[in-house]
Amino acid sequence: MSSPDLYELRERFEADTILLCFNGPISRSLIEEIGHALKNYLKSEQLSPASALDVFAAYIELTQNIRHYATASSLPGADTATVIVSHYQGCYRVAAGNIVKLDDGNQLVARIESLAKMDKVELKAAYKAQLRKPRDESAVTGAGLGLIDMARKSSQPMKATLKYIGNGTAYFSLSIQI
Description:
The termini are far apart. Strands 1-2-3-5-4 form a 5-stranded antiparallel sheet. It has 6 helices and 5 strands. The chain is an alpha+beta fold. It has helices at residues 6-15, 28-44, 49-73, 102-116, 120-132, 146-153; strands at residues 18-25, 80-88, 91-101, 159-166, 169-177. It has one domain.
């Protein structure tokens, strides 16, 4: 195996204004450590507290969703996440991806596409409606508010992609701009 060209990788990061990039198995402690580094970076950039909190919240939501999915699905490789935070023209982009079952990925893309079609008023109504729904006690994750909340905080519609990789699996990616 040859060694990667780190200079080329650095140049790519510079060209794409990537501030943080992680690829590997994600755990609760790793989410916390990377989150702490991201918080410190955003603080050093003197980003408004509200914007810094939105970027941090998107990072936490995306990474925790991957971790919860990996645990619930027991799908090999689902716990290996790719997470990128970048900054371009005054906006931050938080993107994350992992391997999912194709059917789960299709359902998630459809949900995100439906949220992307909503305006701010419709997203607020969807959020309130979700808050009023009784929580499924058998659910291993939260109340289902995370995607709606990210859509509300995003300055552009969220973008999801799904790339089929074989054996009923796909690589799911979600990107949010703040």
